[in-house]
Design brief:
This protein has a domain of 35 residues. It is 45% helix and 0% strand.
């Protein structure tokens, strides 16, 4: 997929943009632009996409089973959560009777 503008800027437009860029911030009139005070609907990271790398991994079957048991989206959760963070969560589950996966994960096996 191509990004950016596929057509080059005209000389007139390039000159206009260069002139606007050269203006000091205090000379730009922003009175007709309303100030945003309510950011409750804002989404953090909406336009940010981290670079993805295709890689083949070997994952212990019980670890994969634990993630899959969490339901749909297990691959995303695996990608977003560092193993130590999961180990802490699984430790709490083990204390509540969470099972073998947490114990094995914490033991490093």
């Amino acid at each position: 997929m191509r990004k950016g503008n596929s057509e080059p800027l005209s000389l007139k437009l390039a000159a206009e943009l260069a002139a606007l860029e050269a203006l000091p911030d205090d000379t730009v009139d922003t009175l007709d632009i309303p100030e945003v005070r309510d950011w409750s609907g804002a989404e953090r990271g909406r336009f940010y996409k981290p670079r993805k790398v295709q890689k083949t991994l070997r994952i212990d079957a019980d670890v994969l089973a634990w993630f899959e048991a969490q339901g749909a989206g297990h691959l995303t959760r695996m990608n977003r959560s560092p193993p130590r963070g999961n180990a802490q969560r699984t430790a709490a589950e083990a204390e509540r009777g969470g099972g073998v996966v947490a114990d094995k994960w914490l033991a490093g096996g």
